[in-house]
Amino acid sequence: MVGPAVGAIDHRIGFARQLVVQAASDAERAAHGQLLALVQKQSGGRLTYLHIRSMDETSVERFLREIRTYAVGSKGVIVDVRFNGGGSTAHKLLGVLIKTPWLMRTLRGDEPLKVSENIWRGDSLELPTALLANSYSYSNAEIMAEGFRKLK
Q1: Pairing of strands 76-80, 47-51
Q2: Low-confidence ranges of the chain (pLDDT < 50)
Q3: Distance spanning both ends of the chain, measured CA to CA
């Protein structure tokens, strides 16, 4: 069973836009793979789901690995920090989210590929992004939510 709808604000598309996101039930929240599959199914494959379990280096490394794999080809991303107990890495995660394209490379080949300099040289998630947080997102997860809210 899916929980009640919650509001979110997407600032990554050039203007503020109110979104309504359907919260997942406890059973769906239990497995990242189930939620990823649910988001992809409900969005027709246009969105992907990334969960940040904790604000620690392991979770940052997982987030970076997932934006390089799951987010490729997506039109947008849902980042989930619900039930995150905190830590000290919000600045690293926000550093990935705050980048905007400033130079696009066209790679040569049979099918020319366009890639931003940010992604070519490092890690960047240059897609419309929504962040999920709840009253069980503590400490540095709250800082992450506030930092994300202020992204323009």
Answers
A1: parallel
A2: 1-2, 13-15, 24, 28-29
A3: 34
Angle subtended by helix axes 90-97 and 140-150, to nearest 10: 20
* Burial class (CB within 10 angstroms; exposed 0-12, middle 13-18, buried 19+) of 67: buried
Measure the CA–CA gap between 132 and 152, rounded to whole angstroms: 17
Neighbours of 136 (CB within 10 A): 11
Q: For residues 77 and 125, is the Cβ–Cβ distance under 8 A?
A: yes
pTM of the model: 0.73
Q: Around 128, how many Cα atoms within 13 Å sit in the side-chain half-sphere?
A: 15
DSSP-derived letter for residue 100 is: -
